[in-house]
Write a structure and sequence with these properties.
This protein is of the alpha+beta class and 187 residues long. Helix content is 49%, strand content 11%. It is built from six helices and five strands. Strands 1, 2, 3, 4 and 5 form a five-stranded mixed sheet that branches. Strand 1 and strand 2 form a beta hairpin. Helix 1 packs parallel to helix 3, helix 2 packs antiparallel against helix 3 and helix 3 packs across helix 4. It is elongated.
Length: 187
């Protein structure tokens, strides 16, 4: 292996990388303006896939001769159009929404873990405990619910005196578990 190649770059490469990066950045801003703020959101799994795919295209376009800047921008444009179509389908064709999107899942409610849901999400109680600590909780009794969202993020909802608006939870699998304190299998 030639170690010197790791640390070498010539001015033509610098110019090419710079022009590609600027061109890609301008193209990305244009596509984002055309398609809206949702472009880089983390609302669903297809949004996450979009972000990862654009990052991969950006890296290969900016750092290599092939694909060209125009090929990279075209690939990104196709991804934006696909995301727009999928978002439209999700809004207009409800039966397909469940095929496209993951469903949020309850990991813990009323201070008790749901072992089956933890196993399905491939998580352990210590994963949930870490999130609870990061949210400043000192006791499981402070927890109304911990929900794994469709993006993989965990939402921690604390107990308080406010009566829950159950409509906020109707798109979560097993949401009925929130409506009553449970004595479900704990881990």
């Amino acid at each position: 292996m030639k170690w010197q190649t790791w640390f070498s770059i010539d001015w033509q490469q610098l110019v090419g990388i710079s022009l590609s990066a600027v061109g890609f950045y301008v193209g990305l801003m244009l596509f984002t303006r055309l398609m809206g703020l949702r472009s880089f959101s983390k609302i669903s799994s297809h949004d996450f896939a979009m972000t990862v795919a654009i990052g991969s295209i950006l890296a290969s376009t900016v750092l290599s001769d092939s694909p060209s800047l125009m090929q990279g921008l075209f690939a990104v444009a196709v991804l934006f159009v696909m995301q727009g179509l999928i978002s439209m389908i999700r809004r207009k064709v409800k039966p397909l929404k469940s095929l496209i999107d993951n469903k949020a899942i309850i990991l813990m409610a009323h201070g008790e873990y749901f072992a089956d849901n933890l196993a399905e999400a491939n998580l352990s109680t210590s994963d949930v405990q870490e999130v609870l600590r990061k949210n400043g909780l000192k006791s499981k009794t402070e927890v109304f619910a911990v929900i794994m969202e469709t993006t993989g993020d965990m939402s921690v909802i604390k107990n308080n005196d406010v009566t829950p608006d159950w409509a906020l939870f109707d798109d979560i699998r097993d949401s009925e578990l929130l409506m009553r304190p449970s004595h479900h299998e704990s881990s």
